[in-house]
Amino acid sequence: MPASVLVVEDDREIRDLLRRYLERAGLVVHTTASGAEAIRLLETDGVGLTVLDLGLPDVDGLEVLRVARDGERQVPVVVLTARDGVDDRIHGLRAGADDYVTKPFSPTELVLRVQAVLHRTCGAPAAGPARFGGRLSLDEARHEATLDGRPLELTPTEWGLLATMAATPGRVYSRYELVNRVRGYEFTGYERTIDSHIKNLRRKLGDHDTAIVQTVLGVGYKFGLSRDH
Fold first, then answer.
1. 88 vs 1, 35, 60, 85, CA distance in Å?
2. What is the pLDDT at residue 47?
3. Rounded Cα–Cα distance for residues 8 and 109 (Å)
4. CB hemisphere CA count around 102 (13 angstroms)
5. CB atoms < 10 A from the CB of 113, how many?
6. d(CA 188, CA 204)
7. Nearest to residue 51, comparing CAs of 127, 90, 105, 125?
8. Predicted local confidence at residue 210, as pLDDT
9. Res 186: pLDDT
10. What's the rounded Cα separation, in Å, for the pair 216 and 213?
11. Residue 45, pLDDT score
């Protein structure tokens, strides 16, 4: 059965964004804006992992974290919060958080962190590398890419672009959509920078004929290789 993830976040836009990304990764997602409701759900023993905002309107997120980690329950917790000071991070990790992500954040990176925590703490099986065109291999669990057996040294943004487009070969993504899928709120409004990242990605791929990352004039970009079966 897919792991069940509880998202505790009072911002509806962020809550809905996280649901879409986590469900796309094959996880069962429940959401709430209430710390009290989160505690009730945690006490039912049906939650596999919690993505937790600390700044909740009714109950301090640290109290929800305490309940999640209490006794035999030991539900893994990925904190997602605007509290970005070093002392805040240390306090959250010491309180039992398995990972600590600050806002603004990349939704793609957060999903990878959730998957890593599930694999580490719950023994959730990691999907094997996906192969494309008999040449390109993408291992999302390890955040690694190889081309013709050669490891690719990609920046987080380059990896996010490649993984996002490869998830649906042939689908055309606008620059704006790529920015929001790869970098989330962190880079909203800076979609023109995607062209520079695509140029660097193509250089590392040796993609001189643009067979892997293809430009769709006036629209954006798409992934040109088919997934191997």
1. 35, 19, 14, 5
2. 87
3. 18
4. 11
5. 19
6. 25
7. 105
8. 72
9. 47
10. 10
11. 64
Topology at the third CATH level for domain 4-122: Rossmann fold (3.40.50)
Q: Of 73, 88, 22, which is closest to residue 51 (Cα–Cα)?
A: 22
CA distance 15 to 97: 19
Whether the model clears a pTM of 0.70, i.e. scores above it, the answer is: no
Rounded Cα distance between 138 and 116, Å, is 16
Nearest CA-CA partner of 168 in 177, 176, 112, 186: 177
Q: Which residue numbers in the chain have pLDDT < 50?
A: 1, 124-126, 185-189
The topology (CATH level 3) of 130-223 is Arc Repressor Mutant, subunit A (1.10.10)
Give strand pairing partners of 131: 137
How many CA within 13 A on the CB side of residue 119? 13
Q: How far apart are CA 183 and CA 171, in angstroms?
A: 19
Cβ neighbors of 88 (< 8 A, separation 6 or more) are 81
- The DSSP 8-state label assigned to residue 53 in this structure reads -
Query: Which amino acid makes up residue 227?
Result: R
Contact between residue 78 and residue 119 where contact means Cβ atoms under 8 Å apart: no
Q: Tell me which residue of 58, 15, 55 sits closest to 36, measured CA to CA.
A: 58
Domain-by-domain residue ranges, the chain? 4-122, 130-223
**What pLDDT score was predicted for residue 127?**
53
- CB neighbour list of residue 201: distance below 8 Å, 6 or more residues apart: 154, 158, 161, 162, 207, 213
Q: Residue 209's pLDDT is what?
A: 65
